[in-house]
Amino acid sequence: MKSKSKQEYKLRIPSQTDNLELIRGFIGKVAEKVGFNEDEVGKIELACDEACTNVIKHAYADKDTDKALDIVIKIDYQKFTVIVTDHGRGFDPKSIKMPDLNEYLAELKVGGLGIYLMRTLMDKVDYNIQPGVRNQVKMVKYFINKENADLVKSEKEV
Amino acid sequence: MQEFKVNRIDKDDLSILKIGGFLDAHTAPNLEKAIQNLVDDGRYKIIVSFADLSYISSAGLGVFMGFIEQIRSHGGDIKMSNMTPKIYRVFDLLGFPTLYDIFDDEAEAYDKYWSTGEKEA
Questions:
Q1: Whole domain around residue A87: which residue ranges?
Q2: pLDDT tens across B100-121, in order?
Q3: From A108, which residue of chain B is nearest by alpha-carbon distance?
Q4: Gap from A52 CA to chain B (nearest CA, Å)
């Protein structure tokens, strides 16, 4: 019964910035389908764009644009999970701290805003880093109300 | 595909950049180039109209961050106008309204340059 209510969507795509629009479209359409409203869809799209932009800009050496980026969306009755995986250099997750927004604004720093946005827009952000092997960013958005969760369930049960 | 567009209009010593489409890590260099051209031309009084912009990520916001200090040091500014609620929310989330003057429309931004004497008669 539990496994019946689960859905999974996958996209494997070259790690290039010109694919960001396509990635947002894919994630946005799935989020819309499972019942998130326009505002929430926008937040999910933006958070995932930021995660993928970080991978495209930092995970691979500059000319490795043929490397793949894997995006998996997992849906169960209570949450919408997006997992972004690359096979690039990775980084030390301990070095990622929640940026102090005032500090960034005061110093007019550019970087770090993406991470701040991801953590603000999603309910949960986790990293699983194995440099050169597999690096994952997992972002979770819980269904706010029971209606959304029921919609996912009923679609699968029909 | 909805590409990013930028149109420049020069009015006296003010320049208006009308931007549209998607502003993300892929298209941000186009905006960067447009603002760099203004700076190279010595035009530091800038209004960016967001009327036709449907999406912005931190890469787009970073472009403004990258120029604002230099532009203000030359007595100019980047004033912003015509944001949809969706775009404004991203600015708001990052505390940008405390950093930038954001107006409902271009005319208000234009007036602001006049009223504060920022615009030369």
A1: 3-152
A2: 999 999 999 999 988 876 555 4
A3: B65
A4: 10
ipTM given for this complex: 0.90
- Decide if A158 is inside a domain: no
Chain-chain contact of B90 with A101 (C-beta, under 8 angstroms): no
Residue A157 lies in a domain: no
Report the chain B residue with the minimal C-alpha distance to residue A102.
B95
User: Which tokens is A90 given?
Assistant: 């990775």
b/e map A26-39, b = 16+ CB within 10 Å:
bbbebbeebbbeee
Nearest CA in chain B to A120: B93
- The CATH code of the domain that includes B59 is 3.30.750.24
Number of domains in chain B: 1
| Res A108: pLDDT | 46
In angstroms, the CA A24 to CA A122 distance is: 15
In a domain, B119, yes or no: no
Nearest to A74 by CA among A121, A7, A124, A139: A7
The reply to whether A13 touches chain B by the CB within 8 Å rule is no
CATH number of the domain bearing residue A42: 3.30.565.10
